[in-house]
Design brief:
By secondary structure, the chain is α+β, with helices and mostly antiparallel strands. The chain is built from 7 helices and 5 strands, in the order βββββααααααα. Strand 1 and strand 2 form a beta hairpin.
């Protein structure tokens, strides 16, 4: 499995110079410490991989579900949508590769939070030709807000509200 190396800041901790980020590969929620003279802003993309880091000192830990919920849902959803846009080809490739498989219908229906009629429209549109983008999928399947539906699904996976994970690593569940 690829390790996260980049993430987007979703929450700044007031009591110490640390931030929560969402990794841009599997939406892994992490706490990072910031270098002494560095500043980072909400929604900023930061590097925390093995090579030289400009702003990040180190990875502190994988954050808990409760801590993840401390971050603003609005900010988190915006960051998730940014990551989806960055990786749109990967999302559309998964849909294109599987959209003609009958056994994929339930998974896709759950992933996109849509009903069976919409799934049928997606499958029929995909039979004509592969989708080029999420906008193309929306247009040809006569549906809307696929990006927001995927973002909400990912948010629920990370927060532990949806146990059926397709896209994301969930926040750690810690017993107190």
């Amino acid at each position: 499995m690829d390790k996260e190396e980049y993430g987007f800041v979703i929450h700044k901790l007031d009591f110490k110079k640390n931030v929560y980020v969402l990794g841009n590969k599997k939406f892994t929620p992490l706490e990072l410490s910031i270098k002494k003279d560095a500043e980072v802003g909400l929604r900023e993309k930061v590097y925390f991989g093995p090579d030289k880091r400009d702003k990040i000192e180190n990875i502190v830990r994988w954050i808990s579900e409760k801590e993840f919920l401390d971050a603003s849902k609005t900010v988190v959803l915006e960051v998730i949508e940014t990551i989806i846009k960055e990786k749109e080809k990967q999302f559309i490739d998964i849909i294109n590769e599987n959209a003609l498989k009958e056994q994929f219908k339930n998974t896709l229906q759950r992933a996109l939070s849509v009903g069976p009629k919409t799934i049928d429209k997606i499958f029929n549109a995909r039979k004509e030709k592969p989708f080029e983008s999420l906008k193309d999928l929306e247009k040809r399947a006569n549906t809307s807000i696929i990006m927001k539906k995927i973002a909400n699904k990912i948010y629920d996976e990370i927060s532990g509200k949806d146990k059926f994970r397709i896209f994301a690593n969930k926040a750690k569940h810690l017993e107190w």
